[in-house]
Backbone:
């Protein structure tokens, strides 16, 4: 990490502005903070950690906890892997740089995990200490959910956060983000107070690794048909435990060599010159690709612990793309090896189950981390996904495939997914109806949160967001490819701690591209996007041009950038509610509601507030205009006329003439009705 000059006068001035602009949260720490702990780092081998972190939960704030794991995530450094290189062949410099003219690059994240803290049984933390060993920082700010807290710097260089100054939720994981202010603003520190969350007596992943479980090629014969398959790291373990299993991720696992997946890519063997057994290593035979699937499991799958599955080695490989129609034609296996191995290996966690835990979940994942996902055009974590139907090789070869066999709820708790720098690498995506994801920390280049089934609940999610090009921090419907419907889903508590959107629009095709906080664009022949509520979303402003938001919403019908439409029936976008948004950055573009569809598809009953039309921000989508007055906010208003005097803000209808309201929704196309926002007397 390079050292930079520090300009304390400028930083102090900006910090005064920041305290007002973020809104809420406590002030600095005590005038006489306790002595900091000794500078002791537990940075993992081969990692470059900038920060030393320690913690107290004592009343006297003496540090009594140190992290058990620390990793660094960076891109653009010398000799970086292919997918992390800062060259003319990468879009990283677009995704992770905030909007001009005050563009700031985000290229370094450190994670410090206190998995020994046990937040379910320990009293809440009282103080956090951070030392920047690069000596670059002149100030630091902590974000926790929707709260902010500034640090006091001790004479010996430690920054001290008095955590008693903010409201901490008890008996839950604690996910903090610390921003160090310096002349570059390129770094973030994620501090996690989690635990091991081991359930029962699980099988150690380390023991599976030592026993030789790996991603590998196999062959077999069923019903007279010989096949080859490239299988994920848990394939054999799943064959041996079809009634379900529990594993403890107790190591830093190289996902390229062994992932935590029951996935496999299947090929029917058509003939030589080599026989199927030999062809596993020579790839010198003719095959027909049958697709990629997950093994059937009839009992619950539990993944717990505090380890990490790491996709870093895969980043050394250029992205090979998804399967195409041409891949399903008879051909030499050698032509498909690179794509097959990449697709299976990069599915770091791909699991399916029809079982049920005592809580009613088929898959239960708690405490673990996923690091350095590679480019995939989807997520490296697919749970009960219809994209990976649950079927045995025999089922596939006989055509006995039920894509809804894994339509069962998934649970994640205290799940962390970071280092997703590469474009087209999404956050986790569950597609089991009734899934629940709580206390999630996401650092994602593309769509961070997917609502892709009925009755999905996201609760308390922290996000570091890159420019998503055409999607959103929250994407409702996965571009129309979700399972059946999104009816009954709720997203409650989304805290965007850093974001680097750009203003990239295509005015000839509204809604076609351009990042949003909430995207719900779907193909006109996809599945309905409907019945979803998003509430309690917060976007803070760190100042200094560090973060930028393009548009709050992009909702509608029509193919999106880089994504063709399907061929199912007429699609509707309807019955969506957005409440209690606090956006402390002025959007670069208007929100978009569009219909470029056909065959009668409509957009209707879209609600941007709950409650009475008033000057109160409660229940509304509120944007705080920091360029004028940090206490002033305006609301989403979609008046499609020259006279916009009926719109409201915190000063009243039309702002009482002080700060006039403006329309901030662009409509395009027909069939758009019942768009409800604070308007009128």
Residues:
């Amino acid at each position: 990490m390079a050292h930079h000059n520090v300009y304390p006068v400028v930083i102090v001035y900006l910090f005064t502005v920041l305290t007002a602009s973020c809104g809420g949260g406590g002030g600095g720490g005590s005038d006489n903070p306790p002595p900091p702990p000794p500078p002791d780092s537990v940075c993992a081998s081969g990692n470059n950690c900038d920060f030393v972190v320690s913690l107290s939960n004592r009343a006297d704030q003496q540090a009594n906890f140190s992290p058990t794991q620390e990793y660094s995530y960076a891109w653009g450094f010398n000799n970086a892997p292919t997918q992390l290189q800062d060259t003319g062949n990468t879009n990283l410099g677009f995704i992770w740089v905030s909007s001009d003219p005050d563009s700031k690059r985000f290229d370094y994240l450190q994670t410090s995990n206190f998995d020994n803290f046990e937040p379910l049984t320990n009293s809440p933390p009282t103080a956090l200490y951070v030392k920047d060993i690069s000596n670059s920082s002149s100030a630091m700010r902590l974000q926790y959910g929707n709260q902010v807290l500034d640090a006091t710097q001790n004479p010996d260089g430690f920054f001290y956060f008095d955590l008693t100054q903010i409201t901490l939720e008890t008996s839950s994981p604690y996910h903090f983000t610390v921003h160090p202010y310096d002349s570059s603003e390129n770094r973030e520190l994620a501090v996690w107070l989690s635990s091991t969350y081991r359930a029962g007596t699980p099988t150690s992943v380390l023991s599976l690794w030592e026993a030789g479980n790996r991603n590998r090629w196999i062959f077999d014969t069923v019903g007279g048909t010989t096949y080859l398959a490239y299988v994920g790291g848990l394939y054999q373990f799943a064959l041996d435990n079809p009634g379900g299993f529990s594993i403890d991720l107790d190591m830093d696992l190289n996902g390229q060599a062994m992932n935590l997946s029951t996935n496999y890519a299947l090929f029917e063997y058509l003939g030589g010159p080599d026989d199927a057994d030999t062809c596993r290593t020579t790839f010198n035979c003719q095959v027909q690709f049958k697709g990629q699937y997950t093994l059937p499991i009839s009992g619950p799958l539990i993944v717990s612990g505090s380890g990490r599955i790491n996709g870093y080695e895969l980043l050394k490989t250029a992205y090979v793309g998804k399967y195409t129609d041409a891949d399903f034609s008879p051909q030499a296996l050698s032509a498909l090896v690179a794509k097959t191995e990449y697709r299976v290996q990069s599915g770091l966690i791909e699991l399916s189950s029809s079982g049920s835990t005592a809580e009613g979940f088929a898959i239960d994942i708690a405490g673990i981390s996923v690091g350095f996902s590679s480019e995939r055009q989807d997520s490296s974590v697919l749970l009960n996904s219809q994209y990976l139907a649950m079927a045995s090789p025999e089922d596939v070869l006989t055509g006995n495939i039920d894509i809804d066999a894994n339509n069962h709820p998934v649970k994640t708790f205290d799940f962390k997914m970071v280092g997703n720098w590469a474009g087209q690498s999404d956050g986790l995506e569950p597609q089991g109806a009734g899934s629940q994801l709580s206390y999630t920390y996401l650092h994602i280049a593309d769509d961070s949160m997917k609502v892709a089934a009925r009755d999905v609940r996201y609760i308390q999610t922290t996000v570091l967001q890159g420019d998503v090009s055409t999607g959103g921090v929250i994407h409702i419907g996965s571009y129309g490819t979700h399972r059946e419907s999104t009816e009954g889903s709720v997203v409650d508590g989304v805290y965007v701690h850093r974001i680097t959107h750009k203003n990239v629009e295509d005015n000839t095709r509204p809604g076609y591209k351009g990042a949003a906080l909430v995207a719900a664009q779907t193909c006109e022949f996809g599945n309905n996007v409907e019945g979803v509520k998003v509430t309690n979303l917060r976007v803070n402003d760190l100042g200094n041009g560090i973060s930028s938001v393009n548009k709050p919403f992009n909702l509608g019908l029509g193919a999106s950038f880089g994504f063709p439409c399907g061929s199912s029936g007429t699609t509707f976008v309807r019955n969506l509610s957005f409440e209690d948004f606090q956006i402390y950055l002025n959007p670069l573009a208007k929100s978009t509601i569009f219909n470029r569809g056909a065959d009668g598809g409509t957009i209707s009953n879209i609600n941007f507030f709950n409650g009475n039309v008033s000057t109160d921000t409660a229940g509304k989508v509120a944007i705080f205009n920091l360029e004028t007055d940090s206490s002033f906010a305006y609301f989403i208003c979609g008046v499609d006329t020259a006279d916009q005097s009926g719109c409201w803000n915190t000063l009243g209808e039309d702002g009482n003439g002080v700060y006039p309201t403006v329309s901030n929704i662009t409509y395009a196309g027909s069939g758009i009705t019942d768009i409800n926002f604070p308007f009128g007397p």
Remarks:
- Confidence is low (pLDDT under 50) at residues 1-29.
- The longest strand covers residues 263-273.
